[in-house]
Specification:
Layout: H1 5-31, H2 37-60, H3 69-100, H4 107-134, H5 139-167, H6 170-188, H7 192-213, H8 216-221, E1 231-237, E2 240-245, E3 249-252, E4 255-259, H9 274-282, E5 288-292, H10 298-304, E6 311-316, H11 320-326, E7 340-344, H12 347-352, E8 359-364, H13 375-378, H14 380-388, E9 390-399, H15 404-413, E10 416-420, E11 423-427, H16 435-443, E12 446-447, E13 450-451, H17 461-466, H18 474-480
Parallel strand pairs: 5-6, 5-8, 6-7, 8-9
Antiparallel strand pairs: 1-2, 2-3, 3-4, 9-11, 10-11, 12-13
């Protein structure tokens, strides 16, 4: 190997290593349903693997062992082959463990440990090889190797995380990165034995690719779902992974994210869509509506067609949901509705950069409160931001997902609150007391020209709401949930708490 080759190999190993981290974490995050603990688990396994791999490399290259350059080449090539093979197999093996073994998602951390250990071998071995070839400690060469490795590790997340995952699914990205690691192995040990090993590994990956990766996400999600996870649609991009089952259930990042349905009748209302209609019970005169998180579009389809609504803006962080909406007949007209706008952005950032916007109703069918980053949507500071964007008499209507802390935080921020099912409505002014007006509003509600209460069901409209009465004024909520933590931007009170 020439002196220039060492920085190139170091850059390649850094690029592959950090890129594989992104793929591994995506899979484990789905298996753990986006829990905030996932990052800690992952880093613990990865850093432990790096430490063990580096220690093994140190012992292997100790002066007393007198390793030759040929021996170091072979060991380095073997470690790069291992990086490629383990990197490629980690996610499908994790999926098999999740499906087959109780708490199998933790076995995925063992695969991450092994992959990181193989990566930990590579850089020290490369430095030792350079020393063996030069016959002395070459500070310049070592510096170039480490700088190149750092540069490759920096490019990995940028290229893979921001570019490749927007055009390739994880399966293709894993195959490409594994192939690159195999090529690096052949480069450092250019022999028939290395090429034969790389060719065999590549052939095995090619032949087994379909079986290994075909059901990757249903396997990773196994045991986390409330319905079948047989995927009708899978959308992958740099923002995450969306899976829609045959029955229309939407999963975002491995967790339940709603169902595509706008019908109120009891045979289809398995997604609690009555909660979307009930938003207009609290804000019957709403003209301008903001929805935080569009998901499959069911709530937006209901609300944009409500009598009196003139505009609805959905702020959704993952652009992949547009494809989901476009592909389902029940909601696809939403994207052609002139009253509807779909914005792809972080909701908090979007609100902060649009200080002039005001809404009569803000709706947030929030994901589970224990998932990562929900603090940014449910904190006291976010409540104040919502409050500043409401018109006088405007209403915030959000899903508490059963969290006592959310009830307390919202009730602390607003003067008037009421609850329906697991939702809480909040306002600076009392809610309209006109249930008959809501019945009239329902009677005139149409989606794609069809009345939402039709046929014999129209006479049963009161029964839709009767089993979940409106309750929970501010004072009673503060008494009931007074011991729950108050969510702030700094304390992550809901993400690490069952309350």
């Amino acid at each position: 190997m020439r002196r220039l080759s060492f920085p190139l190999v170091a850059a390649g190993t850094g690029f592959v290593g950090m890129s594989l981290q992104i793929l591994w974490f995506r899979g484990l995050d789905i298996a753990f349903q986006g829990r905030p603990q996932t990052l800690g688990y992952f880093l613990s396994a990865f850093l432990a693997g790096l430490a063990v791999g580096s220690w093994v490399a140190f012992e292997h290259t100790a002066e007393k062992r007198k390793r030759t350059a040929a021996d170091l080449r072979l060991t380095l090539a073997a470690s790069l082959l291992a990086v490629g093979v383990i990197g490629y197999l980690t996610l499908p093996l994790t999926g098999l463990a999740v499906r087959s073994i109780p708490q199998g998602r933790f076995f995925g951390l063992a695969f991450v440990f092994l992959g990181a250990a193989a990566q930990g071998l590579a850089l020290p071995l490369l430095v030792a090889l350079g020393k063996a070839l030069s016959g002395e400690e070459d500070a310049t060469l070592i510096t170039r190797v480490y700088v190149a490795n750092l540069a490759g590790a920096t490019l990995g997340p940028l290229v893979t995380g921001f570019l490749l995952l927007d055009v390739w699914p994880v399966a293709v990205a894993a195959f490409a990165l594994a192939s690159l690691s195999l090529l690096l192995a052949c480069f450092v040990y250019p022999s028939a034995r290395a090429w034969l090993g790389a060719a065999a590994a590549l052939a095995a990956m090619t032949l087994g690719h379909g079986a290994l990766y075909a059901d990757l996400y249903p396997r990773l999600m196994h045991g986390n779902t409330v319905d079948d996870a047989a995927p009708a649609v899978i959308v992958e991009n740099r923002s995450g992974v969306i899976v829609v089952s045959e029955s229309g259930v939407v999963y975002g990042g491995g967790a339940y994210d709603g169902r595509i349905n706008t019908a109120l009748d009891t045979g289809r209302n398995r997604n609690g869509i009555d909660r979307a209609y009930m938003a207009l019970r609290f804000a019957p005169h709403a003209k301008r509506v903001l929805e935080v998180g569009a998901s499959g579009g069911s709530w937006a389809q209901v609300l944009v067609n409500a009598p009196g609504v003139e505009s609805l803006t959905s702020v959704e962080i993952n652009p992949g949901y547009a494809r989901i909406i476009r592909g389902h007949d029940e909601v696809k007209s939403l994207l052609e509705n002139p009253r509807y706008s779909l914005v792809f952005a972080d909701a908090r950032t979007w609100l902060a950069t649009h200080p002039e916007e005001r809404f009569d109703l803000i709706v947030m069918n929030t994901t589970f409160h224990w998932r990562s980053y929900t603090t940014q949507l449910l904190s006291r500071e976010m409540m104040e931001l919502f409050k500043s964007r409401l018109t006088p008499g405007g209403v915030l209507y959000l899903n508490t997902t059963g969290s006592e802390a959310v009830y307390r935080t919202v009730a602390t921020a607003f003067a008037f609150t009421a609850t329906y099912a697991n939702f809480i409505a909040a306002s600076r002014q009392p809610f309209p007391a006109d249930p008959d007006g809501f019945s009239r509003l329902l009677a005139g509600w149409r989606i794609d020209g069809a009345p939402v209460l039709g046929g014999t069901f129209a006479s049963q409209q009161d029964g839709v709401w009767g089993h979940q009465p409106i309750a929970g004024d501010r004072e009673s909520l503060l008494v009931r949930y007074g011991t729950a933590p108050l969510i702030t931007d700094d304390n992550m009170a809901v993400e690490f708490s069952a309350r």
